[in-house]
Predict the structure.
Amino acid sequence: MHEISVLKQAVDIAEKTAQENNIARIAYLTLEVGELSGFIPVFFYKYYPIVTENRPVFDGSELKIISVTGEALCKECSAMYNVMKEEGRCPKCGSRSKKILGGREFRIKEIGFDENLV
Ligand SMILES: [Zn+2]
């Protein structure tokens, strides 16, 4: 359920960026969401219309989400593996001791402006 608050923050930033650049309309907002961030993309899609309601700059805009794979480096044998796929255990040596290399991110990747409406 914390998806709605981070999504609101992202939408606030996008709206502010549009205002600062005199952009009338945002075409799309692309977010990068890591598999290990704890955020579930389906909720972002669900909340997007709610969060952007009564914000004309987002009229007709689209939310895009890029999922970032959870990658880890095994501290025992230095193997790299997909955390979700291997359920947090090194497939090579079975150790759970690892360094997370990626997949915890939540960030705005791109704010797409509608050029025709600038
Ligand atoms: Zn290992």
Helices lie at 3-20, 41-51. The chain has a mean pLDDT of 95.
